[in-house]
Structure formats: C-alpha cells, structure tokens
C-alpha cells in the first residue's frame, strides 16, 4: 500500500469517528427529499410543458445541497483545523509531503459527495418515481464541473483562513448565495426571473442539472462558465494556499 493510500485510510477512520459531515452528506439530502415526497401535493402530477412535478424539480436542488455542504462546509473547516493545530507544519518535516494529506481529504469528501448524490437519485427514482436525467452525459459533465468549482471555492476559504472558525465564516459568503440561487431555500420557479438567470451561471450549475433532467440539454455557455469557475477557483486556491 502506497503512502497516499495509507493516509487516505487513516483519514477515513478519523472521519468516521466524528461522522457529522459524512452522515450529513450521505443522508441529509435524501431525508429532506423523502419528507417532501411524503406530501401528496408535492408529488402530484404536473400540467407544465415539461411534465416535471414539484418533487422532480426539487431533486437538482438537493444535488446542489450535497455538493455545497461538502465543498463549502466540510473541506474548509477540516483543512483549516489541520493548519491551526500545526499538523500540516509537522507533516512538512517528514518525508510525507503535506499535499498528500490534502489530496486524501479531497478524495474522502468527493467520495461522500458522489455517494450522497447516488443515494439521492436511487431513492428518488425507486420510491418516488423521479425520472433519471434524460441527458446523463450532460448531468455527469455538469456534476463534475460544478463539484470541482465548489471544492475549489472551499479550498480558497481554507487557504486564506488561519482558524477553522474563520474558514467556515469565509466559506459561508459563498455557501448562502449558492444555496439561495440553487433553489434550496426557495424553489427556483418561485424566484424572480432575474435571480433565476443569475443562478443559471453560478456553480454548481443547478440550471444545467435541471436541463439534463428535462432533456433540453445544458447550454454551452453555462458549461463554459462552470469550467471557468472550476479552473479559476482551483488555480487561485493553489496560489493562495499556505501550509502554515
């Protein structure tokens, strides 16, 4: 077993000892969807041109919740805590480069994100007959770009913060508008048109996710903006990141 695999295994065991974000990322979006799905009016047939029920339109917002929670709450706090406690500095004095610890945390949290979205889609489809995306490749591309962009923003927060509390506060600046524009606080159909238009180009790409479901297909400009966010956030995080 190589060094990265050993560190990842160790970090996984540590994460399972304080499993708040792990359980939240895996279960919370599905639990919220199940509660809403138990309400008959929420899952009632729709007369809209797309035929999407309220519950069907809600699932992309829960994908946004999963990505944002892990990328903008879990990752910044964990990495800033390691810096605050001097763990990264101590790693720098060993043959093990501290970047491997960072990569291990990214592997764990991205895996939880993928798992949470997978459980959400499986439960929504089996229990509530929510259709799968009609454009699966468009969904996967949007999910990849959106997840990369959000985790990049989380790493920026972790890069400039000296404490875990500061990292959480900085990440909250991005977390709240992303949740609002992503339709988590208020369903997107109820938002003003101008707000919906802005949300269409904000990571993690809720409009592109919705279009993947309906079959309309994500607009190239939306994907280009997501890609720009993904590259820009990761490059900026790399330039700002400090081990101490």
The topology string of helices and strands comes to HHHHHHHHHH
Low-confidence spans: none
- Name the structural class: mainly alpha
CA(first)-CA(last) distance = 28 Å
Strand fraction equals under 5%
Rg from Cα: 19 Å
The largest pleated sheet is described as: none
Quick check: average pLDDT? 86
Helix content: over 70%
Q: Total domains, how many?
A: 1
Total number of β-strand segments? Answer: 0
Shape field:
globular
Structure, described:
Pfam families: ABC2_membrane (PF01061). One of its GO terms (molecular function) is ABC-type transporter activity. It is a multi-pass membrane protein. The protein is an all-alpha fold and 244 residues long. The protein has ten helices and no strands. It has one domain. α6 runs antiparallel to α7.
